[in-house]
## 1
Amino acid sequence: MKSKLDLEIDIIPGIGPKKKTVYYKRGIKTIKDLLMHYPMRYEDRRHFKKIADVHFEEKVCIEGKIISVDVKKPKKNMVILRICIYDNTQKAFLTVFNNPYIQSQLTIGRTIKAYGTAKRINGICNISAPEIDFDNYSKKTGIIYPVYPLTRGLFNDEIIKSIKWILQSLNIKELEYLNSKYRQQLRLCELDDAIKNIHFPKDPLLIKVAKFRLVFDEFFLLNIGLSSIKHGLVKEPGIKHESSEETKSKIEAFVEELPFELTKAQSKVMQEIIDDMASDKPMQRLVQGDVGSGKTVIAMIAAYYAYINGYQCALMAPTEILAKQHYNNFLDIFKNTNAEIRLLTGSTTAKSKRTVYEELLNGSCDIVIGTHALIEDKVKFNNLSLVITDEQHRFGVRQRSKLLLKNHLTVDMLVMTATPIPRTLAFILHGDLDISVIDQMPSGRKPIKTFASKKQEANKVYDFAKQEIALGRQIYIVCPLIEESENLDIQAANELFEKLSESVFKGYKLALLHGKMKAQEKQEIMDAFSSGRIDILISTTVIEVGVNVPNSSVMIIQDAQRFGLSQLHQLRGRVGRGEYQSYCVLLYEGKNKYIEQRMKIMQNSNDGFEISQKDLELRGPGEYFGTRQHGLDNFKLADISKHISILNLAKDFADEVMSEDPELKNEENKAIKIELDKRFNKFMG
Ligand code: ADP
Ligand code: MG
């Protein structure tokens, strides 16, 4: 049975074919769409003021009896009415332009109500182009007035009228899809009440209650939807890596030979991955771990597990520097195995590329490490079972890993990210992934000491850096990316490099690194820095991602006020990776509360999760996530930076429902399934 609420909006009196197309432009097709076209704000017009008490330049409601009307026609097709009213305290003028309807209603002595911005003209209160009600009508005054997002040819009052008609003429109780038991458990109001109150609230408190319900619905349906995608994936059988006493003892021996002992958190995550790989369900796992928590070794163990099962593994990194670094680390850790490991990046020569392609195809290469060069069509595998993508906090990489997976739908997939985001958010962004968290640092790490310093004091900071160099340590100096121009940041880095080499750091070994350098040149510089031949590396943010030089102990960030907190945290994570006490100095400029607040957060916290939460609150989700992501912009009311607690409530409840009834077949969940099918696809665009 089709509900009337699913009918198109032209059943509403006053909406003809022409209006209908205007509504379409705003994405409003059905009655339900219109009900879900929520006000973007409200004007509280409940209280009338005596004219004598009106504050000028403020919006206000007044009422009074008409004492005179003056009609002027300054031009053809232009009529200006000057209505004088009186309310026993003072006179006021209402100026109305081209409104024949109102003109016909103006009898002397009649009560008129008006809302608008009060101005003082010749000492008298004047409202120009006011909104007007007569006598005992209260359509625009005396109420909390909803203001809707509009489009050309669509007027606020038309929307109000249409929604009022729906509420009076149709049964909107049938919108409810959560039973009363659920609603009570979650302390939610009924959906029809929420809809009524979001449009026409009698009281601001009711807006809050309504919003809570509607925001909950958005988050809840998203979470349920993402969970069902995940359950959908499960159906495809994947590769089952053998799990026997033999494989177990091989992995144990591999772990035993590592130059360090795994942290508890690493061991736990390792086990989760091994269990996934041993099952025939394709692994879709995200490993989150703060910078320096030791994610690489987890990738190595997973790769080793694939290798001893006779399969191939691909590891993809976002930059060549990082791919090379992983490659070297893998060579080192796998030196006592027979695994054949290859590197494949954009700067691999055509000839070596061809060799690697061949080895991948005939199975003689076991582990390939590279950049997006791995996703070229020419790359074909013999028996790939595991794809790992590292540092995919630029979301594009996930896209790429998907590409790589195009022909390998059932392989196990492991994604590693250092951008810690709250668990619920991680679910929204990576809804179809299981999540493991490395929530512990290797022991013996000394927390990085962070200082914020005014730019003028840079010389003191550089003196401190010299002391560290004297102790044998190395220094990073990072310049920010300048938004306006790709080249400006390079220029700025260049200038700083020249200035510092000729002044404070004369006689020291400095090098410059930036994004536009040739891959090989970058690599040479990174190699020189890694092996200690360079004291100070000045760079743009190219080093943000994953670089590991444990001997470096100072990170100096220029113009730190330009970076997001999570980014600062990432940069800071380049030091403190070894046994030495490390330092991060934030050089900043500008004086405002916001900047100082941010610097303070960085000084007080070393916890990436906490920092990213603060970052999200301060910057809002748009900037935080960069571009459009996964329908996050398709929320109507929900805002992940403001409504974290509702999000958590919705996520927990979605988990509860899905764990009991993953296919939403139970009587009490059928309505949820129907609502989900209607709304989720639309939501994901
Ligand atoms: P990230 O999680 O940022 O990718 P890495 O995997 O690069 O971190 O590890 C950072 C450093 O910590 C590396 O030098 C690595 O060898 C070292 N490391 C990793 N795990 C441990 C551990 N359990 N104990 C000591 N050092 C470790
Ligand atoms: Mg890493």
## 2
Amino acid sequence: MCATTAEEVELESSVRAFIDKPHQMLIGGQWVPAESGQTFDVFNPATDEVIAHAQSAAQPDVDKAVKAARQAFDDGPWTRISPAERGRIVWKIGELIMDHQEELAQLEALDNGKPISIARAADVPLAAELFQYMAGWATKLNGEQIGLTVPYAPGSEWHAYTRREPVGVCGQIIPWNFPLLMAAWKLGPALACGNTVVMKVAEETPLSGLKLAELMQEAGVPDGAVNILTGFGEEAGAPIAGHPDVDKIAFTGSTEVGRMIVDAARGNLKKVSLELGGKSPNIVLDDADMDKAIPGAANAIFFNHGQCCAAGSRLFVHENVYDQVVEGIADYARNIKLGPGLDPATQMGPLVSRTQLERVTGYLEAGKKEGARAAVGGERAGGNGYFVEPTVLVDVADDMSVSQEEIFGPVVTATKFRDMDDELIRRANETPYGLASGVWTQDISKAHKLASRIRAGTVWVNCYNIFDAALPFGGYKQSGWGREMGEQVLDNYTETKAVAVSL
Ligand code: NAI
Ligand code: MG
């Protein structure tokens, strides 16, 4: 394996031109630099080389963006156009994403490091689909007619009803693991519901969000309705979370920063939705179809190099099939082709940043010190890029750091269980997180029993990492507040108003 290969896709000229131009931020419909004039480096994680510079937003830029979003909300036009027209614009964003599918996939592969085959097949089309699914809700945000329980005055008549209205100015802070898709998850519903937005994209991966901003302008999103900032968490994210004119904050990232968002939101008690970390259990019973369970469990952890909040990072395998499953996943791991995201043959790219490389290799070291053994992998992989070998850790105890903490890399712990009993449920649920989980069995009754007892926002049965615009996603416990996608996300982006009319 080497960091760059001769087989890399040649960048489309439009992508090359986009990367090379000076990057600015979209505020109030204008492309502007940071007030401070400061920029930061954007890296290619496959080579550790700087490929671009982005604006480093801070409080004054946030103030400007919030003012623009406030004005676009309070004075229109975004809030004054018809729901049908709003829906058409949101739909159009999806269409433009598909028109620029290859460009966006190339940007994502270069900036994030993910395989271009995955960016083409998953990130980009799922982002488009999300906008188009949400577009449909713009015309379906209905209230209800409600009969009052008491007449209040003898013989009085009432007409009472509810209205669903946008929350207002939404601050949105997103991570780097699915840069375009995370932007879509947040922008799609916010816009469909008639809100205006100030979004900060992740400092590791600002490029696809800036490209998306161009496409949103082209789709007809009016000036100020969407503002896209680039910059760091403390300088640019915290001022959004704390801003008194922001009505709602939506955050995806670490649980640690999630807590800071909650603290920052307390000033004006803005609404908060959070999608945070996970340490998801993936349970393989001895009656599972091994031809599906083994690659499925491998994919549960290795997809996106383990940089998934939902990664199936704690594998519980029935003792009768433990050796077969561990050996099967180890074999799968040995055959994964590591390489730069832009090589179409790459199956696993580098981690996103030097910081993540150090974090993940730090966990590998800690695990070994605590007595865990790598059945496969366990090391950094070649070149200057941020590559880590896909790793299966065995001889692990439930209280080791590698079993307890989110590693966010291609590292799974594999442990045994004897019976599908309370003890297994206790171990599966013994984590502060509750985002996702997997169950592999051919026994439908066992599958549903486990599905009801696992404390997590998602249970995948005989599959893993199935995300859909129509399926709600979010966390129990410290994995978050609220749900994204599906009909449930509308709760994050609407207020319900009760209107009581004395007739
Ligand atoms: P992070 O939580 O620091 O970053 C996520 C986003 O929050 C970025 O846009 C960042 O700029 C912003 N941010 C950081 N500090 C902030 C603050 N004080 N106020 C407002 N915004 C702030 O996550 P990071 O450092 O990239 O990764 C650390 C760990 O977090 C990972 O190893 C992983 O365990 C977890 N993580 C979870 C994600 C998920 O999808 N749930 C995504 C990314 C990271
Ligand atoms: Mg951080």
